[in-house]
């Protein structure tokens, strides 16, 4: 088979302790999944989880430098637990969800907050606020055989060494198994899918030169530097 131009490279994530890479198929994201974050965003805690996607090529493996994006003046971090799937399907039962997990990582759901506020006010889609270039820095995946099934653990984000987000993944409203089941009601989950599970309270704006350190207890950390504005 030939193509009219060379296809883009396969999006991937590194795997701790292995030379193998994890190919990324889709990036699912969950919004409004920590009670304190719901309150700081002025939303209703009784709402079901918000499910949206980022393109696979938004993934930035292992962090490094990312540009301050175009089309925003209010660029926010959101530190999250990321779940990587080795299998999937439709209508996965909550009890069966752990069998589909390959491993876990730390990620940042970078957000154009100014445009998100406008979209939410008008009931519009979130793509312009979430699905932009290099909006998903993600650290190496730790296989579940190494980490065990994660149900609790401290999640922390620092900006230039100052703690901004500090919570525990046990505080997620929708737990990982429930998230997998819920997404599979609407989409056929597949090997290579990753899920960003939502952020705790403490989100805020960053600018060029800021250094973000994101950690989830037991996983490889993630460091990202915000570079100059994208050309």
Automatic annotation (TrEMBL):
GO terms for molecular function: hydrolase activity. It comes from the Bacteria. Residues 27-226 form the Fumarylacetoacetase-like C-terminal domain. InterPro entries: Fumarylacetoacetase-like_C (IPR011234), Fumarylacetoacetase_C_sf (IPR036663). Keywords: Hydrolase, Metal-binding. The keyword Kinase does not apply. Coiled coil: none annotated. Signal peptide: none annotated. This is Fumarylacetoacetate hydrolase family protein. It comes from Paracoccus niistensis.
């Amino acid at each position: 088979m030939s193509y009219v131009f060379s296809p883009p490279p396969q999006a991937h994530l590194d795997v701790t302790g292995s030379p193998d890479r994890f190919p990324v198929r889709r990036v699912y994201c969950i919004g409004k999944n920590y009670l304190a974050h719901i309150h700081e965003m002025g939303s209703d805690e009784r709402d079901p989880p918000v499910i949206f996607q980022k393109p696979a090529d938004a993934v930035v493996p292992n962090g490094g430098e990312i540009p301050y994006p175009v089309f925003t003046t209010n660029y926010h971090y959101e530190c999250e637990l990321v779940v990587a799937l080795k299998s999937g399907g439709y209508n996965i039962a909550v009890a069966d969800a752990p069998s589909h997990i390959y491993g876990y990582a730390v990620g940042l759901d970078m957000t154009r907050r100014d445009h998100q506020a406008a979209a939410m006010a008008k009931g519009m889609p979130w793509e312009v606020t979430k699905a932009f270039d290099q909006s998903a820095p993600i650290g190496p995946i730790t296989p579940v055989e190494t980490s065990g099934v994660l149900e609790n653990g401290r999640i922390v984000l620092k900006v230039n060494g100052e703690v901004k987000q500090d919570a525990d993944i046990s505080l997620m409203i929708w737990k990982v198994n429930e998230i997998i089941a819920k997404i599979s009601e609407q989409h056929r989950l597949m090997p290579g899918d990753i899920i960003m599970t939502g952020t705790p309270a403490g989100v805020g704006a960053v600018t060029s030169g800021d250094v973000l350190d994101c950690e989830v207890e037991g996983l490889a950390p993630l460091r990202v530097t915000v570079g100059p504005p994208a050309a």
